[in-house]
Amino acid sequence: MAIKRVIEGVHLVAMGTANAYLIEGQDGLTLIDAGFPNKEAAVFGALRELGRSPDQLKHLILTHGHPDHIGSAAAIVRETGARTYMHPIDIPLAETGGPFRPMTPAPGLLRQILCRVIYDHNQRLAPVAIDQPLIDGETLNIAGGIVVVHVPGHCAGQVALLWRPGRILFAADVFMNIMGLGDPLGFEDINMGRASQRKLADLSFDAVGFGHGKTVVRDAMRYIRKWKKS
To answer: Which domain does 186 fall in, by range?
Structure first.
């Protein structure tokens, strides 16, 4: 199985240890994030499982410019012709293919080790052109409405996305949800990252999907807000 149903109209696509999400809309399919490099086959397999062809993928929204979220973007766009979206701060990272901004490991020994092992800011990727910049607070006229929320800290151009019809929040890497809710592997600016975590905790949603880890489809607001109180 290349895909797993999250809620009606939303499917998780496993891209290695990173998650991407497919949204089904009347205007075609929207993909949120593109995973690590050389993972495009997972997206094409997901499309086949849904009985869809690559040209039905109309939109590719990239939550931020790290290699585990834009790695297969160029290959996906080449095959599908999807329109691409990204926050202006991170567009240069996608369009050059790196290098990337340095990141400091989040608190905790495990994250300090994993961040240094997994994240290489000197990595280079196939560049991908971005068609439309994302603006904080705007609602994209895609799949019935997707609200853009700028959430810097882990990455300066990171955005979370709220799909209005399904009341699901795509939280990018503001948090990870591996062995419970917690910090991402690292931060470009930890104070901004903490502010973004509080910002998401104040939003209204029913389900939440993360860039890494398990989705939450029941009492998702309470799940996030428990972190805020801790």
So the answer is: 3-97+104-229
> Is pTM, for the whole model, over 0.85?
yes
Task: Please spell the DSSP secondary structure of the chain, one letter per residue.
Answer: --EEEEETTEEEEEETTEEEEEEEETTEEEEE---STT-HHHHHHHHHHTT--GGGEEEEE-S--SHHHHTTHHHHHHHH--EEEE-TTTHHHHHHT------EEPSSHHHHHHHHHH--TT---------EE--TT-EESSTT-EEEEE--SSSTT-EEEEETTTTEEE-TTSSEESSSEE--SEES-HHHHHHHHHHHHTS--SEEE-SSB--B-SSHHHHHHHHHH-
pLDDT in tens, 78-87: 999 999 999 9
CATH number of residue 50's parent domain = 3.60.15.10
